[in-house]
Automatic annotation (TrEMBL):
The lineage of its organism: Bacteria, Bacillati, Actinomycetota, Actinomycetes, Micromonosporales. Residues 104-315 form the ABC transmembrane type-1 domain. Keywords: Cell membrane, Membrane, Transmembrane, Transmembrane helix, Transport. Residues 1-32 are annotated as: Disordered. The keyword Transcription regulation does not apply. This is Binding-protein-dependent transport system inner membrane component. Its main location: membrane. Gene3D superfamilies: MetI-like. InterPro entries: ABC_transporter_permease, MetI-like, MetI-like_sf. It comes from Micromonospora lupini str. Lupac 08. GO terms for biological process: transmembrane transport.
Length: 326
């Protein structure tokens, strides 16, 4: 039989198998592969958003939404005007309050002392990275204060810094008169900040050590071959290489100094003497917990948030500019 005569019989057989309906042509294999690739690309593009969505939702519900509520509440009144909109009256009262003015001055002092609070763990981390004798022991000792409660730290230093305490006894052995560390308005804030730095620099030390893990050791070897001193190595090699780490430590240390000193202030000075150790967070607690003025406390919280935001952005800008110049 010829080929031409066999084709009609094949078509009729196919029609019989499908009930008399001609078979529908299937999509090509190339089109199916293209659809699978496009679907995979869409899934790949959506994956980051799906992974980030729970964290964003938590931040919005537990951070952003309460922040907006607090800002809105700061424009309402206290006492007889409870719940009524009062505009910027609370902010005007804040600026007129001597205690809040003192708290803002102390914030300026903290900003000035911030480079010292960052430099201390940075230098200690440098010595540990350079493996000075006993570096493993020092790493454990330096981190130990970070695990202590601020209440315990405050109680310990209340004893050490008391007028007849061990610190003044040591100073007396060198012919230096006793210092009223916690009773002198000109000294108390420096004492509390010093204790806070001692108690918290262990966390910054860990961050710096993590940053050193990314440092190219070839740069240090090249600097040693060129005869660079330790100061030159730190200034021209280590600091430029750890710019991002330094930025992170600056911001986190600043936030810690402005929002995590309540325990020390409460135990060591209770805001005294003469209100000289007030900080915004302690002022907020006084207004909310003792004076029953939640709207004024919300206004103070809003001011504290703005201060942290502005100072943090300025620090990042300055550090980035310094990094580009290096």
């Amino acid at each position: 039989m010829s080929i031409g005569k066999s084709l009609p019989s094949v078509r009729s057989a196919s029609a019989e198998r499908t009930g008399g309906v001609p078979p529908v042509p299937q999509p090509s294999a190339g089109r199916a592969v293209h659809k699978r690739v496009a679907s995979g690309r869409r899934a790949e593009m959506l994956a980051p958003f799906v992974l980030v969505a729970p964290a964003v939702l938590i931040l919005v519900l537990l951070r952003l939404y309460p922040l907006l509520l607090g800002v809105n509440f700061s424009f309402t009144g206290d006492g007889d005007r409870d719940g009524a909109m009062v505009g910027f009256d609370n902010y005007v009262d804040l600026l007129r309050d001597p205690l809040f003015q003192g708290a803002l001055r102390n914030v300026g002092l903290l900003v000035l002392l911030l480079p010292v609070a960052v430099a201390i763990p940075g230098l200690l981390a440098t010595f540990i990275y350079l493996r000075v004798p006993g570096h493993r022991f020092y790493r454990s000792v330096y981190f130990f204060p970070a695990v202590l409660s601020p209440v315990i730290v405050g109680a310990i230093f209340n004893l050490l810094l008391s007028f007849d305490g061990p610190v003044n006894s040591i100073l007396g052995a060198f012919g230096i008169g006793p210092v009223d560390w916690l009773g002198d308005p000109d000294v108390a804030m420096f004492a509390v900040v010093g204790v806070h730095v001692w108690a918290t620099f262990g966390m910054a030390l860990v961050v710096f050590l993590a940053g050193f893990a990314t440092l190219d050791s070839a740069l240090l070897d090249a600097a040693r071959v060129d005869g660079a001193s330790l100061t030159q190595v730190i200034w021209h090699v280590i600091i430029p290489s750890l710019t991002r780490t330094i930025q992170f430590v600056f911001v986190t240390t600043m936030i810690g100094m402005l929002t995590s000193m309540f325990g020390l202030l409460y135990v060591m000075t209770s805001g005294g003497p003469e209100g000289s150790t007030y900080l915004p967070e302690y002022y907020i607690w006084i207004q909310q917990g003792q004076m029953n003025r939640p709207a004024l406390a919300s206004a103070a919280s809003t001011v504290l948030f703005v201060i942290m935001l502005v100072v943090g952005l300025l620090q990042l800008k300055l550090l980035r500019r310094a990094g580009r110049e290096d």
